[in-house]
Automatic annotation (TrEMBL):
Pfam family, one: Pyridoxal_deC
Keywords: Aminotransferase, Decarboxylase, Lyase, Pyridoxal phosphate, Transferase
Family: Belongs to the group II decarboxylase family.
Source taxon at top rank: Bacteria
UniProt region (Disordered), positions on chain: 29-48
Cofactor: pyridoxal 5'-phosphate
Gene3D superfamilies, alphabetized: Aspartate Aminotransferase, domain 1, Type I PLP-dependent aspartate aminotransferase-like (Major domain)
Protein name: Aminotransferase class V-fold PLP-dependent enzyme
GO molecular function, one term: transaminase activity
Length: 467
């Protein structure tokens, strides 16, 4: 077998072109065979099919590039939960823009490693300017805001707690019961006290309880309040300005997890929902959610780039002092990770290609679809709506159904390959969770989703065995 070609240099594109054609054909055929938002049959069907395709995983003699790409990509596609299907609406699992996926190909082919300038000469500038520009969107009135690229909200939240600890020592985190699980996990990983948890009975932090908690603990330890702009369960947004006022009153710092809701800043129609972001000492912001980027594309933004100095790390083979003094940028202070992909590339290309108006249109379309779904549920006598959507998450359930019925319907939709709905508990009951992130979703798609739920509810009531 000849030596396989590489993806870079002037010869790489020529080698890639026929391989990409094979991949695109496999993606098309796999989606055609799946014919829906996810494969039918559940794990008992999907797992053996994938394992058969992979066997033997490492053959004595290779099958060749085109055969391996065609068979495995097709099998993966056939067995995928496809977020580009309007009925795949369970999680904050976005359908990536074709533009962003194409940009990711360039990142993979060039393979810059974002840990030293001599591995990423142009990419280091692209990342620095992109993160600074995004930070300026969050902190428009601060003179030197900055941000670092993360793998997503979990890493960004952990970094936020780490930076607060480095500024103030062992901080006491105060968080709502509606907060993402990564906040408590970050406190554990960093050796910080267990977070003080404030109730969120309506889905957002109770301000009176927060005031009382801060009053009781003021002066005992440095306090860090974490608020949420877009919860994973209901998509609700904490009262950010009021929380910022309480933090100022009690001398506490504020971190806002806006992994979901942060991109609302790009929409003139919806940016008021995240008023107060600029008052936080750090902000988590994901563009692989309401930004339509392939994972991962998260950031942690701070109002002053000096807040990031604690991340500096010296490794002479990557950032020797004399190289830094000579003007080579030191990239190790841009992350806790060493080898990193240039995830800023797809973000920068998307921002430039779509501009503010293009991003706003995607956001507005997606939020409008969520409100239309809520309207349809309200007009369906056999369904109950939890609440109007704040962003694009809609909770609903069959009227008078018990939690077992809701769970059974959801699993049946999955097993039959008809739809992907999430599940969450709110007000002591189990609800379907539709997280709409597809700007191409139509009213007909939403009606079809509700019809599937109502038909299965009837089927179950009539005593059929759902499989």
């Amino acid at each position: 077998m000849p030596t396989p070609p590489l993806a870079g240099s002037t010869t790489g594109p020529t080698a890639l072109r026929p391989l990409l054609d094979t991949v695109l054909t496999a993606l098309t055929e796999g989606a055609r065979r799946r014919d829906g938002p996810l494969p039918a049959g559940g794990p008992d069907t999907v797992t053996p099919h994938m394992r058969t395709t992979l066997t033997p995983l490492i053959p004595d003699q290779g099958t060749g590039a085109h055969h391996a790409l065609a068979t495995i990509v097709q099998a993966l596609t056939e067995g995928a939960a496809d977020p580009a299907d309007p009925l795949c609406a369970a999680h904050l699992h976005t359908p990536p823009l074709a533009l962003a996926a194409a940009a990711d190909l360039a990142a993979s082919a060039l393979n810059p490693s974002m840990d030293s300038w001599d591995q990423a000469p142009a990419a280091s500038t692209l990342e620095a300017d992109t993160t600074a520009g995004l930070a300026a969107e969050i902190y428009p009135h601060h003179p030197a805001p900055d941000a670092v690229i993360t793998t997503g909200g979990t890493e960004a939240n952990q970094l936020a707690l780490l930076l607060a600890r480095e500024r103030h020592g062992p901080v006491q985190t105060v968080t709502g019961t509606n907060a993402h699980h990564s906040t408590a996990r970050a406190a554990w990983l960093l050796g910080l006290p267990e977070p003080l948890t404030v109730p969120a009975p309506t889905g957002t932090i109770d301000l009176t309880a927060l005031h009382d908690t801060l009053t009781r603990n003021q002066g005992k330890a440095p306090l860090l309040v974490t608020a949420t702009a877009g919860t994973t369960d209901t998509g609700q947004i904490d009262p950010l300005t009021d929380i910022a006022d309480l933090c100022a009153q009690h001398g506490a710092e504020l971190h806002i997890d806006a992994a979901y809701g942060g991109p609302l800043l790009f929409s003139p129609t919806h940016r008021h929902l995240v008023n107060g972001l600029d008052r936080a000492d750090s902000v988590t912001f994901d563009l692989h959610k309401l930004g339509w980027q392939p994972a991962s594309a998260g950031i942690l933004a701070v109002p002053d780039r000096r807040h990031l100095h604690a991340l500096h790390h010296h490794a002479p083979y990557l950032n020797a002092d004399d190289d830094t003094e000579a003007g080579l940028p030191d990239l190790l202070g841009r992350s806790l990770r060493t080898t990193r992909r240039p995830d800023a590339l797809k973000i920068a290309i998307t921002l430039q290609a779509l501009g503010r108006t293009g991003l706003a249109d995607l956001i507005d379309r997606t939020c409008a679809a969520a409100h239309h779904l809520a309207d349809l549920i309200t007009r369906t006598p056999t369904l109950d709506l939890y609440d109007r959507p704040t962003i694009s998450t809609v909770l609903f359930r069959p009227t008078a159904a018990d939690d077992h019925t809701v769970a059974t319907i959801r699993r049946t939709l999955l097993t039959r390959g008809h739809a992907v709905l999430g599940r969450t508990h709110a007000h002591g009951r189990l609800w379907f969770k539709a997280t709409l992130l597809n700007p191409h979703t139509t009213p007909e798609d939403l009606r079809r989703l509700l019809d599937l739920v109502t038909h299965l509810t009837t089927e179950l009531k009539e005593g059929s065995t759902l499989r």
